[in-house]
Structure formats: C-alpha cells, structure tokens
Specification:
43% of the residues lie in helices and 18% in strands. Helix 4 crosses helix 7. It is globular and about 50 Å long. A hairpin with a 4-residue loop joins strand 1 and strand 2. A seven-stranded mixed beta sheet has the order 2-1-5-4-3-6-7, with helices on both faces. By secondary structure, it is an alpha/beta fold.
Length: 211
C-alpha cells in the first residue's frame, strides 16, 4: 500500500465529508432559520406620549371632561405649569408672569395652548379654577388657557410624568417645580421655562423652545 496515496485519499474523504456537512448546514439555514431580527426603533413622538403624556381623564375649569393627551396636548404647542388657588407666594406670581409672557409673545399665543394643572383637586373644583382664572383677567382673547383638575391620582400622575413633581410618592405634593413645560407635541420639541423670572424672560424661553 502506498502511504502517500492512502493519506491523500483520507484527506479527500474528510474534505468531502466537511463540504457535505457545510452544504447541509447552509441549506438548513436557508430553509428554516430566520436571519437575526433587526431592533425595532420606537417612534420618538410615541415614546414621549407613552412615557410623559398620560391620557387620563381630567376636568376643565368649565366642568368638561377631557383626556390629557387627546384633548389638551395632541398636535398642539403647549405651555403647562402646576399651581393651586390658595398658593399666593409662588403660584399667583407665576400666573401673572405667564400672562405677561403672553403679552410679549403677541399674536403667536393664539396658536399656543396654555395649561395650568392644580395640585389640590379636592378643593380646586372647576368653579374655584374658573374664579381664579377670572380674578387674573384670563379670558381667552390672547389664546386658549385651560385650568385642569380631576381625581388626585390622575392629577399626580400627569404632574409627575411631566417632571413638575418629584417621582417619589413620599415627597410633599405641594413642593412642586416653578417651571413650565414648553412643547410642540407634533414636532417632538420639549423644554422648560422658569416661571420665577420675568414675563419677558419667560417669553424669550418659550420662543427658544418653539423655534
């Protein structure tokens, strides 16, 4: 027996076996194994809606039931702050500065929806919010401004989702942010304006966020 020929034959046999196994594996892959799935990218607008804009029912100062996302925010430019009618040291000054900001913004505010969410819904009924709105001279001529109340759970859920309250349920409900959320929901542009500054300063921040 020629040892060289025998070695060559063995190599040939092994090679044919490996080649056959490879083709079988490839065929199995083509026939039954799917390629790795691509990661599904969530639409940015939908991600913000799901995480930050809960579609819970609330009550307006007119006593209408509305859904926060569907009726208040969707497809709109919004300026949203939190307040309560008995808060005189922060909330009332912030409301007055937002009114001043609207004057500085001029006709542009007719396309903006200002929204104020009470943090004390048990006492801030629609009637109380309507009286607060009237006392501050807010009549809608400069554009829509909706005051919202509702169940304590829904109010807290919205305020926390917007980042205007601490995420920790143990924190004081009334220890809220002095900021307003500024956003263009359709274009997925979101930011904040400090309501503790001047009305002119708030208007400048709103313009910057709404570019």
């Amino acid at each position: 027996m020629n040892p060289i020929q025998t070695l060559a034959e063995r190599r040939s046999t092994v090679g044919r076996a490996l080649l056959g196994a490879g083709l079988l594996a490839a065929g199995a892959g083509l026939m039954g194994t799917s390629p790795p799935a691509r990661a599904v990218t969530e639409d940015p607008r939908e991600r913000v809606r799901r995480r930050r804009l809960p579609n819970v029912p609330l009550l307006t100062h007119e006593g209408r039931v509305v859904r926060f996302y569907d009726d208040i925010v969707r497809d709109r430019q919004v300026v949203i702050n939190v307040m309560y009618t008995s808060c005189s040291n922060i909330c009332s000054p912030a409301t007055r500065k937002l009114i001043e900001a609207r004057h500085h913004l001029g006709p542009r505010t007719r396309d903006m929806h200002f929204v104020s969410l009470t943090l004390t819904p048990l006492t801030d009924t629609p009637a109380e919010l309507a009286a607060y709105r009237k006392a501050h001279g807010i009549d809608g001529r400069d554009g829509p401004w909706t005051f919202l109340t509702g169940s304590q759970a829904n109010v807290e859920r919205v305020a926390r989702a917007l980042g205007l309250m601490s995420d920790d349920p143990a924190d004081d409900l009334l220890s809220h942010s002095g900021a307003a959320v500024v956003g263009d929901e359709r274009r997925v542009q979101w930011g904040h304006a400090n309501t503790m500054t001047t009305g002119r300063g708030i208007a400048r921040m709103i313009r910057f966020e709404m570019v």
